Amino acid sequence: QVQLVESGGGLVQAGGSLTLSCAASGRTFSSSTNAMGWFRQAPGKEREFVAAIRWSGFSTYYAASVKGRFTISRDNAKNMVYLQMNSLKLEDTAVYFCAARSRKIGTPPLSPGQYDYWGQGTQVTVSS
């Protein structure tokens, strides 16, 4: 059983910054996880890819809409993954979810169907 819990969401003005955290639990999480990802879902819209990072190695992936503004990082020893969000825009407003893939994948995991576990989400609201 793997559980993911997001935190760090809140209200921020456009141009500001927030850091989201995802804490993973499970006795074998570190040894079984291949990649972690962040997705977001705005009201009336489909869940969309934001960023992903492999649990081993240095590969990271970003959606074009956040590239250059968001940074995904990890701390394997603490079973944590982070999303540093800078220069926030109104369109970044959404519920943000972290996700984990427990199986090896040779291509970038950029779609929700490629992940096995999900957190409950944390709200990020960007105001003008």
Describe this structure in words.
This protein has one helix at residues 29-32, and strands at 3-7, 10-13, 18-25, 35-41, 48-54, 60-62, 70-75, 80-85, 94-101, 117-118, 122-127. By secondary structure, the protein is mainly β. Strands 2, 4, 5, 6, 9, 10 and 11 form a 7-stranded mixed beta sheet that branches. The relative contact order is 0.31.
Q: Keywords, please?
A:
128 residues; 11 strands; 3% helix; single chain; mainly beta; 1 helix
Gyration radius (Cα, Å) is 14 Å
Q: Which oligomeric state applies?
A: single chain
Shape: globular
> What is the H-and-E element order?
EEEHEEEEEEEE
Mean pLDDT equals 94
Number of strands: 11
Q: Report the biggest beta sheet as strand number plus sense, adding barrel if it closes.
A: 7 strands, mixed
Number of helices: 1
| Helix vs. strand class | mainly beta
Into which percent range does the helicity of residues fall?
A: under 10%
Cα distance spanning the termini: 41 Å
Q: Could you name the ranges where pLDDT drops below 50 across 5 or more consecutive residues?
A: none
| Percent range for β-strand residues | over 45%
Mind sketching the topology for me?
Elements: E1 3-7, E2 10-13, E3 18-25, H1 29-32, E4 35-41, E5 48-54, E6 60-62, E7 70-75, E8 80-85, E9 94-101, E10 117-118, E11 122-127
Parallel strand pairs: 2-11
Antiparallel strand pairs: 1-3, 3-8, 4-5, 4-9, 5-6, 7-8, 9-10, 9-11
In a few lines, what is going on in this structure?
The protein has 128 residues and is mainly beta. 3% of the residues lie in helices and 48% in strands.
